[in-house]
Amino acid sequence: MQRKANYMQQYAMIFGTYMGIFWILKFALIPLGLTHPFMSLLFICLTICVPFMGYYYTRLYRDKVCGGVITFMHAWSFNILMYMCAALLTAIAHYVYFQYIDGGYILDTCRDTLQTLMNTPGMEANTEQIEQALDTMAGLTPVDIMLNMLQTNVFFCVLVGIPTALLAMRSRPKENLQN
Q1: What whole-number distance in Å separates Cα of residue 29 and Cα of residue 92?
Q2: Ranges 83-92, 106-115, 146-155: which has the least confidence
């Protein structure tokens, strides 16, 4: 049992690293998407691909390490561990971006967009709330932003891991299913 746990950790770290690199590249589209709508669309499409990658990696782990048999809890544990590794790697990139690269670009771009929206009739009441939210965001440190994004990534990935584990679990090897 200990040997299987070591394999689970090893494969979760490897696949989590791959997914983390994918998330970092995907994250680079966020600032670009503020001025180029195609980049926002590409970000959304790549975000939709994340559960499919998780399912692929879980299936690969099930077939290569577990001999084609994996329980729901084992698959879900693997998913959580894999997504945690990806989220931790991505959190480092988030910190580096907000500490050294961003310089308030995302916040300033949102404020500029808000100024454009203020000229739209009927938006006056909503812009005040949005301005308050932007003022609150301006007070956040890069560590605060990074921890918030890490928490969000982990929360949603634990939830996404449930259907992924349900789809990937298998009680008997594939050869026995045909008999």
Answers
A1: 17
A2: 106-115
160 in any annotated domain: yes
The alpha helices in 28-138, defined as continuous H runs, are 29-33, 37-64, 72-96, 105-118, 124-138
Would you give the DSSP letter of residue 103? Answer: T
Q: Kindly state whether residue 178 falls inside one of the protein's structural domains.
A: no
User: How many domains are contained in the chain?
Assistant: 1
- Residue tagged 């544990």 (tokens): 77
User: Each residue of 63-85: pLDDT tens digit?
Assistant: 999 888 999 999 999 999 999 99
Please state, in angstroms and rounded to a whole number, the distance separating the CA atoms of residues 96 and 77.
29
Tell me how far apart the alpha carbons of residues 78 and 89 are, in angstroms, rounded to a whole number.
17
pLDDT mean over 48-53:
95
Q: How far apart are CA 57 and CA 14, in angstroms?
A: 10
Which structural domain, as residue segments, surrounds residue 54?
2-173
Q: Assess if residue 42 is contained within a domain.
A: yes
98 in any annotated domain: yes
Indicate the average pLDDT of the chain. Answer: 87
